[in-house]
Amino acid sequence: MAATFLSCQQLAQLAGVSVRTLHHYDRIGLLRPSQRTEARYRRYGPPELLRLQQILFYKELDFTLEQIQQLLDDPAFDLTTALQRHRQALQARHARLGTLLSTLDQTISHLNGTRTMLTNEELYAGFPNDQAEAYRREVVAKYGPATIAAAEQHLRQLGKPGLDQLIAEQKDINRTLRHLRHLDPASPAVQAQVARHYANIVGFWGPAVAEADRPAAYQGLAQLYLDDPRYTKQHDGEDSPAYAQFLSAAIRCFGQ
């Protein structure tokens, strides 16, 4: 059965993009037509349709065109694996949007005169009950009571929806970074996600860590991810030392 080829106008209409966008993708080498007519009109076949789908998926995940091209042109790129990871990432985004809706509802409630404050138990959610207090004592001993009190106050001011949003965003970032593990930790695509990771960590710290001290404190996490077994559990509670090593290396490259 002969392959069906689409004109630039037909593909633009099918994919919901502009003809100008397809022309731009062609100029930068991101999506080239497989054929041109005698009149030099572009013609796109099935491989180009699949590649455009991948481009649109990655754009939905906030990748730049340069990063998308680097990913799609990587010899290790596998379409089936990419589709599975896109599905996971979209599920994570769906969960994050649910959290945002919850945040809006809580904000409306706050403006109407109510406010949900976090308890100590909620601040350390995710740790078993018998470990939460031990973990708090550990961080107080390491960073000092004033720093931890300031961090806890910051999180209480965020409220439960704000904390849930930070946690959901962190999960989304980790899923995306796991998707990029085949790349060099210093590559632009990885470092763009590390920048998101840094901003997310700063969101947890708040004013407890002075702005001038944040880069060094963030670099300290790189070693922590290697030394502390709790930080290798980055994938649905499963031990993932390979990911911890990748993230540690990516953090060390950040800001260089």
UniProtKB/TrEMBL annotation:
Q: Does the keyword DNA-binding apply?
A: yes
Pfam families named in the record: MerR_1 (PF13411), TipAS (PF07739)
Q: Where is the HTH merR-type domain?
A: 10-74
InterPro entries referenced in this protein's UniProt entry, alphabetically: DNA-bd_dom_put_sf, MerR-type_HTH_dom, MerR_fam, TipA-like_antibiotic-bd, TipAS_dom
Q: Which UniProt keywords apply?
A: Activator, DNA-binding, Transcription, Transcription regulation
Single Gene Ontology MF annotation? DNA binding
Q: Under which name does UniProt file this protein?
A: DNA-binding transcriptional MerR regulator
- Per the UniProt record, the source organism is Hymenobacter chitinivorans DSM 11115
